[in-house]
Amino acid sequence: MTPATLGDAWITNGMSRYGELMYVEHVSGQTALQAAVTDISAGALAYDTTPLTSAGRLDPFSHNFNP
User: Fold this and answer.
1) Which residues does 60 contact at the CB level (< 8 Å), separation at least 6?
2) Distance in angstroms (rounded) separating the CA atoms of residues 31 and 25
3) Which of 34, 45, 55, 58 could form a disulfide with 65 if both were Cys (CB 3.0 to 4.6 A apart)?
4) 17 φ, ψ to 5°?
5) How many Å apart are CA 20 and CA 36, to the nearest integer?
6) Distance of CA 24 to the CA centre of its chain
7) ∠ CA 42-43-49 to the nearest 5 degrees?
8) Pick from 33, 31, 58: which is nearest to 47 by CA?
């Protein structure tokens, strides 16, 4: 399954991350889940050059699209 447009790319990655977090919670518990969410949140905030909502308008090979 692939997204219809680049603006929909978050769906694929979002579901992968959700599955990852559910696995962390199942294997290691609520505290590990909270730590993983904090780590993911900090990583997402590190990319401040292009808002996520604008990703669909970027060239897939641009340096701004990679983050």
Assistant:
1) 6
2) 8
3) 58
4) -65, -40
5) 9
6) 16
7) 110
8) 58
